[in-house]
Amino acid sequence: MRFTSEQRLDDGVLAREFTLGEIPGTLWTPESAAPVPLVLMAHNNGLPRRDPRLVARARHTAAHGHAVATIDAAGCGDRPRSAADEEIRAELRRAMRAGEPVDAIFESLIGPLVERAVPEWRTTLDALLALPGIGSPVGYSGWTALGIRLAVSEPRIAAAGLFAGGYVPRAQRAEARQVTVPLLVLVQWDDEGNPRQRALDLFDAFGSEHKTLHANLGGHTGTPWFEVEDGGRFFDRHLRRPAHEATGT
């Protein structure tokens, strides 16, 4: 891991850009003399790590006392995309605007994105936990499909906050019952891009003993800011105490 820049922000958070091989990322850390828990933060459907909504969430979470990291995984954000990926994305946008069925198109785009992203996130996690000042357990916040696969395949993930779970590939829907870590799931009731009932069915399928669903009125980008604040408290409960002491979400 090579840090390429750093900036001390006005909330005391240190923001550092890094590269890990071909993987570009950002790490936000609070002012702390002791190791702090880590939260991996991924945006939905390959949006760039510098997206203002993700950066705002990351800064708030870091100021709350957690280290936060995000990357542009393969085919996401600023990373190169193949002509085939661009064609599928364009077809998905066209079909959604026209109100046509999108399941097959979505599957052909998101399924491979998840498969490519998970190994890069795990490689990044290895490198981050080797840094001084960053400890475990680890939380995850963001894109539901990726979060499901990481929660199932990565034992260091101790809690997850999941956003917008309507459209999730078949493989991750099948894995939902294997997810047993505490969950905080956010649903926008009028999300134009994620069917409400599918999100509710997915929540019901999760195998976690401790899972909470927060539903708010509004479209896809209308999640209230207080949900970010609640997310900080959720991670406090499950990352700052031994897992066997955590009860509820």
In short:
This protein is of the alpha/beta class and 249 residues long.
Describe the structure.
It is a single chain. With 249 residues, the protein is α/β, with parallel strands linked by helices. It has one domain: Rossmann fold, CATH 3.40.50.1820. Helix content is 38%, strand content 25%. The protein has seven helices and nine strands. The chain has helices spanning 52-63, 83-98, 103-129, 144-153, 170-175, 196-205, 226-239, and strands at residues 2-8, 14-20, 23-29, 36-42, 67-71, 134-143, 157-163, 183-188, 211-216. It has a nine-stranded mixed beta sheet with strand order 1-2-3-5-4-6-7-8-9, sandwiched between helices. Helix 2 packs across helix 3 and helix 3 crosses helix 4. The longest helix has 27 residues, at 103-129. It is globular. The two termini are 34 Å apart. Mean pLDDT is 89; it is low at 243-248.
Low-pLDDT residue spans: 243-248
**Within the CATH hierarchy, at the fold level, what is the topology?**
Rossmann fold
Number of helices, where a helix is a run of at least 4 consecutive DSSP H or I residues: 7
Measure the end-to-end span.
34 Å
Number of strands: 9
Strand content: 15-25%
The total tally of domains equals 1
Question: From the alpha-carbon coordinates, what is the Rg to the nearest angstrom?
Answer: 17 Å
Query: For this structure, what is the CATH class?
Result: Alpha Beta
Report the sheet with the most strands, covering strand number, pairing sense and barrel closure: 9 strands, mixed
Strand order of the largest sheet: 1-2-3-5-4-6-7-8-9
| CATH architectural type | 3-Layer(aba) Sandwich
Mean pLDDT score, rounded? 89
Helix proportion range: 25-40%
Structural class of the helix and strand makeup? Answer: alpha/beta
H/E topology pattern: EEEEHEHHEHEHEHEH
**In one word, what is the shape?**
globular
Question: CATH homologous superfamily name?
Answer: Alpha/Beta hydrolase fold, catalytic domain
